[in-house]
Amino acid sequence: MENCCRSCCPCLKRLWNWIWPDVRYPSVPNNNHLVIANPAHASEIRTVSGDIRVPSPQKRPVQLYAALFDFEARSDEELSVREGDKLSVIEKRGEYVLATKLTGSRQSGLIPANYVALLQDEFAKHKWYYGNINRSKAEKLLLASQNKDGAFLVRISESHSDEYTISARSEDKVFHFRIQRSVIGAYFVSDKLSFATLGELISYYQKNPRCLGVNLVDPCVQQRELFDMESWERPREEFQLVRRLGEGHFGEVWEAFWTKEKKKVAIKTLKQEDTKQDEFVKEVQALKSLHHPKLIQLLAMCSRGEPVYIVTELMSKGSLKSYLASPEGHLLTSAHLIYMGSQIADGMGYLEDRSIVHRDLAARNVLVGDHLVCKVADFGLARIIKDSVYKASRTTKIPVRWTAPEAALHQRFSVKSDVWSFGVLLFEMMSHGKMPYEGKSNKEVLDILSSGLRLSCPPRCPQNIYRIMLDCWAAEPSKRPSFHALQSQLDAIYAKIYSKTVEV
């Protein structure tokens, strides 16, 4: 089943209503008198005042790689592989990667980086892939007169955005089969049979229909491009702005109600004059194809008329910047913050694999939901904004305090400049919302960075977390870690805190 419900404790609800009577997100106040609970004690690791639970560490699907060539280890540090071997890459080390075999004895070691390649599912090339459509739309398409029994499509699961669903027509009915992910990132319908890619799974069941119980003959013949475009562009009248939640470099953010879908959403407004009109629709369409549990889901757009609406899912607790400054945010321990930071690195790793540069990663562009869920927002938005708007002007400033020197001085934005920004984001989190380089002008910040100085360790910040920040702030971009390595490090630290084997 794709739909699920969550129960809500009445006591927690009363406490929530007392803390957040109108769910407003205030600006960050002075935090000089902030008191942070010590998470070293077991009771405080698991809960803070009995309210904010620290979730248990979870196994995450790893990125799946394949060896491109045979490689014979020349020392105990290296790993022998054969062409086609499936691997999990832990981190990059210069011209090598540290990898683990996912078959056989699961050995680990170094392999030349150019000997491996990420196994990415290029979904868009498959005619059967329909992306983010719901169950009812899938059934409507498959039951259309153009399709016959055996027509099928693959769509993103409505309840698990990192999983998929096969929808297939058989005897004039539509059947749905959930495609799950294993801890190593493999795809499976039955846990007895898994596949490295989504394409391999579909190909197998096309050739072996008895295993699934229905025939997968031809992809749904509806023109996907027209269908996607129609569902993506929505009439402005479908949205009612409820209240303004804040504003950023690119426009205002509103809580709104989507009348047709009967649900609350968030809307970012932009002036048409501030967008690159020739690239806007194409770019937002590309962003719509990105799906990850730690990225804000884009739902719709209104590009005709003023202002432009970009419609996304609504997160209950607003921006991470506001949440850190809230009464509930003040209660967060290092354990909570590390858990949240790992989620952000997870979402950024997905963008990294697709060579998408955020360019404005900061606490203000991370949103928080229930159960400490964090999602990255505004990814890719910088690319559809006129450069004159993104760069310094009287009304908008480059976020120098979060921007890597090569990007701030020479406009060389890259995944590695995003890693720098992630280090500053960790500083924001561990200082509970303190402004980076507080009291310094942008010019003074650039002078500080050029001299080789870095932000100091926030009070009560674990030293191993500060070391991660310093790694993110390496002067040479190539020496900064990948987001996958950052997530792995944060997960390991969090697991140790949770199991109470170390004190923070």
Automatic annotation (TrEMBL):
Keywords: ATP-binding, Cytoplasm, Kinase, Lipoprotein, Myristate, Nucleotide-binding, Phosphoprotein, SH2 domain, SH3 domain, Transferase, Tyrosine-protein kinase. Residues 60-121 form the SH3 domain. InterPro entries: Kinase-like_dom_sf (IPR011009), Non-receptor_tyrosine_kinases (IPR050198), Prot_kinase_dom (IPR000719), Protein_kinase_ATP_BS (IPR017441), Ser-Thr/Tyr_kinase_cat_dom (IPR001245), SH2 (IPR000980), SH2_dom_sf (IPR036860), SH3-like_dom_sf (IPR036028). SUPFAM superfamilies: Protein kinase-like (PK-like) (SSF56112), SH2 domain (SSF55550), SH3-domain (SSF50044). The keyword Lipoprotein applies. It is found in: Cytoplasm. Its EC number is 2.7.10.2. It comes from the Eukaryota. One of its GO terms (molecular function) is non-membrane spanning protein tyrosine kinase activity. Belongs to the protein kinase superfamily. Tyr protein kinase family. This is Tyrosine-protein kinase. It comes from Austrofundulus limnaeus. The gene is LOC106528740.
